[in-house]
Design goal:
It contains 19 helices and 8 strands. By secondary structure, it is mainly α.
Length: 440
């Protein structure tokens, strides 16, 4: 591609190297906080997450013909599934479920290619998607509170003070910082809370919560897609599969597919190009699905298109796929430094609690925004009923359990709430009780 001298860089434009590198680093900073936070919260490797985010983005660029400027990073929507399946069956089964989520993306992409997307709109209207997104955020709220208020399962004012300072810094950055720095609000909160914890540990040794021994023992260079045992031997953890894990991740992916459609539409509006038509929604869905399956194959969290990077493009008016690809390469390079990953693992739990108090609330609030933007009318009993049942089942921890021969089937939380929401939307007539069906 020819180099562009315009201040606006379109997807095919390649900037000069002196501009290319800093522009790519800007996208790394934008995606960094969220991408590493998912593995931290779910017990996965941050180095692996960076590796799979970078390589997954490169795969996405390849599949979409280098036409869509989108960075793919760790998905927050899959956090409840990663935690629940990992705890019940083990992390390998969670990775197996995530691989099938990617396969489901590919199946939906194939259907969209030949049948269009109207069937998705019919099965998953905003009232269902918005309610499910609220459930995703609120179902994680107890985890945030536990991390913010407790140390070693005991109530702690020390933990609360660290979480409060972290939250205050993140809130300040979110509300008052402008432009590029506003996209880094989560990262700024993490760094601020981390520094506060270090200072507290210096003045009050009894409250020293950061241990750098793992950083000292870590190697400078290591393969991010391999696991290491206590003796330092590297091995690849193969994914494993069972029906519960597969269904759980496939069902959650229904909401992330809608998230993908929203992000792709937003990117189209920002760039001024209809990516639904060229390269086509089926290509972007396939790229996202392949990236998710690829990530899980190496033990990384499922990927999704990142709104943070869309925000950076909207601010800078740099839509170059070359810049996004450069950010992906930088993420891969960072993933090979084991000490870098070890430093991230030293982030204290109360700091995470403070960040997650805001972050999980923002996820839930984005669900509310989905409902508001779509004009969902809650004077209609149909909409009120669907949202009410979804949120009670999802937030309340509803679960469906039964035996299939010797196999214990269990489906709960976000996955069960999504299934119930889809069924209610299909079963309840849109003109129930004589109500208008203009909004759903």
């Amino acid at each position: 591609m020819a180099e562009s001298n315009s201040s606006v860089l379109m997807p095919g434009d390649k900037p000069p190297l002196a501009k290319w590198i800093p522009l790519s680093f800007q996208h790394v900073f934008a995606m960094f906080g969220a991408t590493i936070l998912v593995p931290i919260l779910t017990g996965l490797s941050t180095s692996t997450a960076l590796f799979t985010a970078g390589t997954g983005t490169l795969l996405y660029i390849l599949i979409t013909g280098a036409k869509v400027p989108a960075f793919l990073g760790s998905s927050f929507a899959f956090i409840p599934a990663l935690i629940a399946v990992g705890k019940e069956y083990g992390v390998p089964y969670a990775m197996g479920g995530a691989i099938f989520a990617g396969v489901f993306y590919a199946i939906v992409a194939l259907i969209v290619r030949f049948a269009g997307k109207k069937w998705i709109d019919a099965a998953l209207p905003p009232v269902v998607i918005g309610s499910v997104i609220i459930v995703i955020g609120m179902s994680l709220a107890p985890t945030a509170v536990s991390e913010a208020f407790y140390l070693n399962n005991e109530y702690s004012l020390v933990a609360l003070s660290i979480a409060a300072v972290t939250l205050a810094i993140a809130v300040f950055a979110t509300i008052f910082l402008k432009g590029f720095f506003n996209t880094l609000s989560i990262l700024i909160g993490l760094v601020g809370g981390y520094l506060f914890t270090l200072i507290m540990g210096c003045f009050f040794p009894a409250y020293h919560l950061i241990d750098f021994s793992a950083v000292q023992e870590a190697k400078w260079f290591a393969l991010p897609f391999l696991q290491y045992d206590g003796a330092g031997h590297a091995f690849w953890q193969a994914p494993k599969f069972n029906l519960v894990a597969i269904l759980t991740f496939v069902i959650v992916s229904i909401s992330t597919i809608c998230e993908h459609m929203g992000d792709t539409l937003t990117t189209s509006k920002v760039v001024g190009t209809d990516f639904y038509k060229d390269p086509g929604l089926h290509r972007t869905l396939l790229g996202d699905g392949v990236a998710t399956a690829w990530a899980a194959l190496w033990g990384g969290p499922p990927n999704t298109t990142y709104g943070e990077n869309i925000g950076v493009m909207a601010i800078t008016k740099v839509y170059s796929v070359w810049v996004i690809g450069g950010a992906a390469v930088i993420a891969v390079i960072l993933s090979f430094c084991q000490k870098f990953g070890a430093v991230i693992q030293t982030i204290p739990t109360p700091v995470l609690g403070g960040i997650c108090t805001l972050l999980y609330g923002l996820i839930a609030s984005s669900g509310l925004r989905t409902l508001v933007d779509a004009g969902v009318d809650y004077q209609q009993k149909r909409n009120l009923t669907i949202s009410s049942v979804i949120m009670v089942i999802g937030i309340g921890g509803g679960v469906l359990k039964f035996m299939i021969k010797d196999f214990n089937f269990s489906l709960g939380g976000v996955a069960l709430a999504t299934v119930v929401g889809i069924l209610l939307n299909l079963i309840i007539p849109k003109n129930a009780a004589g109500e208008s069906s203009s909004q759903n």
